[in-house]
Amino acid sequence: MIPDSHLDLLTRPLFAHLATLRPGGMPQVNPMWFTWDGTHLRFTTTTTRRKHRNVTAEPRVAMSINDPDEPYRYLEIRGQVERIDADPGATFFGELARRYALAMDGPPGDAADRVVLVVRPDAVSYQ
Amino acid sequence: MIPDSHLDLLTRPLFAHLATLRPGGMPQVNPMWFTWDGTHLRFTTTTTRRKHRNVTAEPRVAMSINDPDEPYRYLEIRGQVERIDADPGATFFGELARRYALAMDGPPGDAADRVVLVVRPDAVSYQ
């Protein structure tokens, strides 16, 4: 589903602007770390955040990434939060921190609340 | 409403990731040119595009911008498409092309269909 021409936008440590829906349908969108394993996108959040409440009630999401070196190249993926995995040791958070070269002295203070949003793409658009 | 600390993200020619809602409520999000005049955001699109159909049916939108030089600095604005102005001479498109330093030989081929999405912010979040 992901065109080879734009796969680099998923494998490079770029920021994805993830749109979720609030109760009542208002969209929100924020930059997020992510990974791509060839079939699913994964994002870290915590159970105390609005984003978690949003996707628990309404799993449909969309994300946009453009190339900072060539900003007219972009990839949009629309899909569904297929499941939410617990990440109580913040293992996935740590994987992301390494991917994005963020120096950490240890697990984050909110490790106990960490979860992984596992997103299955349904459709893409790109330029 | 826009914090002084993040106003530069609106005055610099950065790309905004604009989320709109499809009929049925699926979000979509794409990088977009924009302007900010102190009260409204403006985006160019055409009446033939899905984005125009989306906001005609559902005016609630959200956008996210992060600083390419400091990617953890971001600004999210949620709001409403307050009105859609015609731009048949692509005058606003031309203003954006200059703001984003895109060389143009003349008006775009779709000038006759160009419109301006005028967005009134309702809420912001930032980091």
pLDDT < 50 stretches of chain A? none
Q: How many helices of chain A in DSSP terms?
A: 3
- What would you call the quaternary organization? homodimer
Overall number of strands of chain A: 7
Report the largest inter-chain contact: A-B, 25 and 25 residues
Annotated CATH architecture of chain A? Roll
Question: How much helicity do the residues of chain A have?
Answer: 10-25%
Strand percentage of chain A lies at over 45%
CATH topology of chain A: Pnp Oxidase, Chain A
Q: What is the C-alpha radius of gyration of chain A, as a whole number of Å? A: 14 Å
Largest sheet of chain A: 7 strands, antiparallel
Quick take:
The structure is a homodimer of 127-residue chains. In chain A, 17% of the residues lie in helices and 46% in strands.
What are the defining features of this structure?
127 residues, 3 helices, 7 strands, seven-stranded antiparallel sheet, alpha+beta, homodimer, Pnp Oxidase, Chain A
Walk me through the structure:
Two copies of one chain form a homodimer. Chain A has 127 residues and is of the alpha+beta class. Chain A has a single domain, classed as Electron Transport, Fmn-binding Protein, Chain A (Pnp Oxidase, Chain A, Roll), CATH 2.30.110.10. Helices cover 17% and strands 46% of the residues of chain A. Chain A has three helices and seven strands. Chain A has helices at residues 8-11, 50-57, 91-99; strands spanning 16-21, 27-32, 35-36, 41-46, 60-67, 70-86, 114-126. A seven-stranded antiparallel beta sheet of chain A has the order 2-1-5-6-7-4-3. In chain A, a hairpin with a 2-residue loop joins strand 5 and strand 6 (70-86). The model of chain A has no long low-confidence stretch (mean pLDDT 96).
